[in-house]
Write a structure and sequence with these properties.
two-stranded parallel ribbon, four-stranded antiparallel beta sheet, alpha+beta
Length: 500
Amino acid sequence: MTRPLISSITLLAAAFAMPTAAYATAGDSSRQSAEATSMTVSLDSCRNMALQSNKQLLIRNEAVNAAHFDNRAAFAAYLPSIDFAGGYTYNQKKISIFDSDQLLPTKTFNPATQKYEFNLAKNPLTGEPLKQPDGQYVPETVALIPKEAMTYDIHNVFFGAVTLTQPVYMGGKIVALNRLTHFAEELALEMKSNEAQNIVYAVDAAYWQVVSLKAKQRLTLSYVALLDTLRHNVKAMVDAGVATRSDLLTVEVKLNQAQVDQTKVDNGLVLSRMALAQLCGLPVDTRLTLADEDADLTHAASSATMAASSYDMDEVYQRRADLRALGYGVKMLEQGEKVALSAMLPNLAIVGAYSFSNPNMFDGFKKRFSGAFSVGAMLTVPIWHWGGNYNKLQATRSRTAMARLELADAREMVSLQVSQSAFRAQEAQKTFLMTTANLAKADENLRQADIGFREGVMTTDNVMEAQTAWLKANSENIDAMIDVRLCDVYLSKVLGNLRY
């Protein structure tokens, strides 16, 4: 009985061991997949990935390409255009020059008069030329032209023409359109540059958000460890009868709240990593490890230069891509005025053509292709359009004036933006210095509270207050360090100095 029972147990253990091994293999493959999607990146690499994959920037790049080809198309208007047109026509009837056979009078050379004279029928009695009732002379001899000889078959007609047109003067339209499309290409480039700066700033904000939450994660772990140590000490005191159960419950409630806050920080860190991965064009489940996660940011923040109080706004205006784009918009509208003005000026062009047909009219409507060249000039002079062209010109001038006012307003807003950004950067630096000093005091306060608690001169509430103040000081210091970074990046963007 014993041996069969042992054998049965062995078989059951083997059966259960097989799926366990399979699960272990699956777990290993999952870990390998997770490791495959994990990567360490720096701020520059995140910027590069975002610039290469961002859809809006790709759209701006295509807009640059479109504007470039528009400029090349406008340049083609300077050159002669060659076109071909051809066709086929079926006609129901033939064409005939005469409605019937034609009789033509003939002439004979008279040596006496040295002239050709009509051969006229004469009266045999009088010798005078005979006349018809309508007063016309009767010819003596005639030449017959049959109707069929002047009838041509045009049932099937093939025709075509090759034309060449060379503009000579179009009222300045071609020159204006070339300049307009050139400015449009420059505008598209500036819009692309501005979009790239927006992407870089968004990536920086997401990057430093992850760094901030990672630092706060370490902070919450330290805070939970402090509370756990305090709970252990208070429990020992309760067991020794020198502390109450209420003191222990107070510490445990605080510990539970800290653990909840730690969970929130952990979740926020995961979501922030997802947001950064999305900006970089990576799958949101990519585990990004940032190069600055464990770096000491205190030195970098403390060594940051204080923002200046004033800047040369003319240089700022020249560096700002969005203002340059508005400036090119004004130039485009100015060229649009010239295009509108060209509709009120004469246009001159040289036209050349080679036309051919089958049957052709050059050789008695023979059924073969034949053609001829022709050259000419075409002049168009607008005379009266009931003020339509003039009103279009005035409307374009009004739009140009609007664009100039928008540019002036944008410059004023940029001036305010620069002042506010510089002030915010200065305040961020001051706040960081104050939080750094406050952090040192909070560390000392916590140390004194721990010593006092061990000596029995401070209560549990005093220790928890010191720990809370320490947590707040560290959290504010982390926020201040990150704010210094972001304010510096934003100020560079506002000043047009952001490099990528």
